[in-house]
Specification:
Elements (H helix, E strand, L loop, with lengths): L2 H24 L29 H5 L14 H20 L5 H21 L4 H22 L2 H24 L6 H17 L1 H24 L12 H27 L1
Helix pairs in contact: 1-3, 1-4, 3-4, 4-5, 4-9, 5-6, 5-7, 6-7, 7-8, 7-9, 8-9
Length: about 260
């Protein structure tokens, strides 16, 4: 692993994050993410290339449209920075390996789905379902390059295990979990399973832990009731990313404690 790789992935993350802002806005509305070009929602002017540089343009314009002065939400540069940070962390965790592109795709998908689920309480099929194919193909590259077919088989089993587990939960308590969460679980199982059973267990557990902590916090602060609907996708994604980053170390520490 080199600093250049981490920095390069961070820069790539900024560019991808800029595109994800388009995805987050347009996909829930059924609009094309390719055309028309991005424009100010206030005055309709197409955004100039010089005003579309990730983070920098927002700072230069002081968060306002160059043409009409309308406020540009700070959420745009924050999404770009979050994507860059995740790309850098994934590169730091995996290094220069054949599996890196697969996990960069996971990071990008996680940002997009998190924002969409927060906004509209939905995990769009147009993102989740193609992710099965993309993840399976991208993970096929390291399997073929290194001959580690056991990891690929484990990824497929991980996908099946999480999908079936979430399906059972949704069937037992439909009001507490949507089928979008079930479909997402299979995708996350692919990524976590490739890395190992420890990562799979930690990533799945942390999703429920994060969701539970957030739910308790909302109850304590009276920002939600016991029957309030809370999007679970962001916690699944957050738990999975933590599983990717630290799941192996956490699971090994747990085994060491049990063995001592």
């Amino acid at each position: 692993m080199t600093l250049a790789l981490v920095a390069g992935c961070a820069l790539l993350g900024l560019l991808v994050g800029s595109f994800l802002n388009v995805v987050v806005w347009r996909v829930p509305r059924g609009e094309s993410v390719v055309s028309p070009p991005s424009a100010c929602p206030g005055c309709g002017h197409v955004i100039r290339p010089r005003d579309n540089v990730p983070v920098v343009s927002w700072l230069v314009l002081r968060g306002r449209c160059r043409d009409c002065g309308a406020t540009i939400s700070p959420r745009y540069p924050l999404v770009e920075l979050a994507t860059a940070a995740l790309f850098a962390l994934v590169a730091w965790r995996l290094g220069s390996t054949w599996a890196l592109p697969a996990y960069l795709y996971l990071a990008a998908t996680a940002v997009a789905l998190t924002m969409i689920d927060i906004d509209v309480r939905r995990l769009p099929n147009s993102i989740v379902l193609p992710s099965y194919v993309v993840a399976a193909l991208l993970l096929l590259l390291p399997a073929a390059a290194t001959g580690d077919w056991n990891a690929y088989l484990r990824a497929l089993l991980g996908a099946a295990a999480l999908f079936v587990g979430y399906f059972a939960l949704a069937f037992a308590y439909p009001a507490g979990m949507g089928f979008g969460d079930v479909k997402l679980a299979g995708v996350l199982g692919l990524y976590l399973g490739w890395l190992g059973w420890g990562e799979l267990a930690v990533g799945a557990f942390l999703g429920f832990l994060l969701g539970g902590v957030w739910g308790i916090a909302l109850l304590v602060t009276r920002r939600a009731g016991r029957k309030s609907a809370i999007p679970f996708g962001p916690f699944m994604l957050g738990g999975a990313l933590l599983g990717v980053l630290v799941g192996g170390a956490v699971s090994q520490a747990y085994v060491d404690v049990l063995a001592s």
